Amino acid sequence: MPQLYLVAQIAGRSVAIDADQVESVVDIGEVTAVPRADANVRGLAALRSRVVTVVDTKAALGLDASSDNARRAVITRVEAQHYALLVDSLDDIAPFDLLPLGSGVALDRAWRAAGRGIIERDGEPILVIDLASLVPGQVAAAE
């Protein structure tokens, strides 16, 4: 049975996120830096009367950090904490069947750790990622 996925762009790559991991999609306002925070943490932001940790998703994947003006984010909850994971853009939300990652799929270490399978949209494979694996402190647990 198909599952609902949010299709987004991260570092110019289409990715799919299980809708069960998505609490909301927002544009983040001002981000306050946190001294000595993990390098993947952009800072903290106020969102609907609560504070969320803003994660630079590109940095979490071992890529060049997002620009300071990156504001679009997917809100998720991991271990009772809310996180805003920055994305380049959002494409679609639709039902897809989850397919296993084939052995021929070449992914570097961070993408491989985040990858949970693929979906096919218009004949194009799209990597399904687990948002929790991109949260600081969760990456090591996922490996």
Total strands: the figure is 10
Q: Helix and strand string, N-terminal first?
A: EEEEEHEEEHEEH
Distance between the amino and carboxyl termini: 28 Å
Helix content: under 10%
Note poorly predicted spans. 139-143
Oligomer state equals: single chain
Radius of gyration: 15 Å
Percent strand? over 45%
- What spatial order of strands do you see in the largest sheet? 8-1-2-10-9
Taken from the alpha-carbon principal axes, the silhouette is: globular
Largest sheet: 5 strands, mixed
Helix and strand content put the structural class at mainly beta
What do the pLDDT scores average to? 88
What's the total helix number? 3
Account of the protein in words:
The structure is a single chain. With 143 residues, the chain is mainly beta. The protein is built from 3 helices and 10 strands. It has helices at residues 57-60, 109-114, 139-142, and strands spanning 3-10, 13-18, 24-27, 41-47, 50-55, 72-78, 81-86, 89-96, 115-121, 124-129. The strands form 2 sheets. The protein has a 5-stranded mixed β-sheet with strand order 8-1-2-10-9. The protein starts with a strand and ends with a helix.
